[in-house]
Amino acid sequence: SGYSHTKLISAELDLAIEATIWAMIFSRLSEILTFGTQQVIIQRVLASGSKRNMFKAMYMNIGVEIFWTALSVVVVWGLVAFYNQNVEAKTSIEHPDKVIAHYVVHYMPVFMRGVILAGLLAAMMSTFDSALNSISSVCTNDFYRRYFRRNRSESYYLAASKYFTFAWGLVLLAFALWQLKHSGQTVLERFGRLNV
């Protein structure tokens, strides 16, 4: 981040510094602006059935997010304490994004490694197929069906949706391969520092 880990907030207007107060404000503002477009929240709200249940779903979502944030803070501070006690392990970590992976690979029992890896793969597949499904659905229903091919059969639109899924899968694969070439930095670091 450009600063020692003991400095909490920087108010500088330098794009080379990741953790500034402006980055925090911008991320919260973008989260507020996109709150109504998050698929999980919208599904809960639309499936609730009544206005009262809708508010329950929203408050439950807020409660779960606060719980996971608190749990994440506890885990992160636990890792900070662990690596401060184990200096030789700390020196073998190349990038701050690799701390959890390093801990899992080197210090957790084999069974737990397998469970974590299976969970990561399941979450990755679920996220990836949901993203592809959403992109394909938007392309097919909101653009292709509306502006290019009206009044066709559902089987025609299903086939078009499969083609869109395949095409967007190739685009995302190309992005992943591009990201692999820049493995020293994360995507957020490159975009944040304007080193695209």
User: From N to C, what is the helix and strand string?
Assistant: HHHHHHHH
Identify low-pLDDT runs. Answer: none
Largest sheet: none
Proportion in helices: over 70%
What shape does the CA trace take? extended
Gyration radius over CA: 22 Å
Number of strands: 0
Q: What's the helix count? A: 8
How much strand?
A: under 5%
Helix and strand composition category = mainly alpha
Could you list some keywords that capture this structure?
196 residues; mainly alpha; 73% helix; extended
Tell me about this structure.
It is a single chain. The protein has 196 residues and is mainly α. The protein has 8 helices and no strands. Helix 2 runs antiparallel to helix 3 and helix 6 (110-148) packs across helix 7. The chain is extended. The two termini are 18 Å apart. 2% of the residues are buried. The mean pLDDT is 77.
Care to give the gist of this entry?
Helix content is 73%, strand content 0%. The chain is an all-alpha fold and 196 residues long.
Give the secondary structure arrangement, pairings included.
Layout: H1 21-33, H2 39-46, H3 51-85, H4 87-91, H5 99-107, H6 110-148, H7 154-181, H8 187-192
Helix pairs in contact: 2-3, 6-7
